[in-house]
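User: I'm curious whether this sequence folds into something compact or stays loose and floppy. Could you predict its structure so I can see for myself?
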Amino acid sequence: MIRLGLRFTSSGRLLCEPVDDAPGLDDAMAARLGEAFARGSGDGLLRLGAGEVGQALPPVFVSWRDFASRYVAALCIHAASAEGGQADASVPPEVPTPDEAELASLVLTAPMMPGAEYLTPEVRKRCPAEWLTEAERIERGYLGSLLPLTLLAPDIVEGVLDGRQPEAVTLPRLLQPHPAPWAEQRVAVGQ
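Assistant: Here's the prediction. I'll summarize afterward.
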């Protein structure tokens, strides 16, 4: 078991690093989280909010996963409700900023962690959108092109993230339009 924790920096970055007294994570999950956060706060949050949903995690990771998954869900909801029912997959929709009461609640319920004193409503207001785009240098168009992946069946996503997908299942194939029912998606990707 690998012991990892999260630390929030004074410059507004979320870091994942070894912590001696943290609860242990299984090796595969620790590797996935460590690699994602090594690429940046945005990649780490995407991993938590879209790739580790339903996984047993220590409380500090659960809190940030919940935060990130709300953002991912909001992207999906706003993409699906685009004008005429058709979203431009190359541009992620604008996600409304949480109101002041929700921001205050997010700050007050933030987990105990190193750097929590830097977590203010203003910081939460600009995160994770800033982390997922400007701060991490992920272009909004690129992020938008990945939105169709959020509608895939969870077992398909898990298989891809774990490297267990059929050989013919490539990123370009997954980015093509796919049926909404998960059972039909499984047939389409050969599962």
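Summary: The chain has two domains: 2-149, 152-191. The first strand starts at residue 2 and ends at 8.
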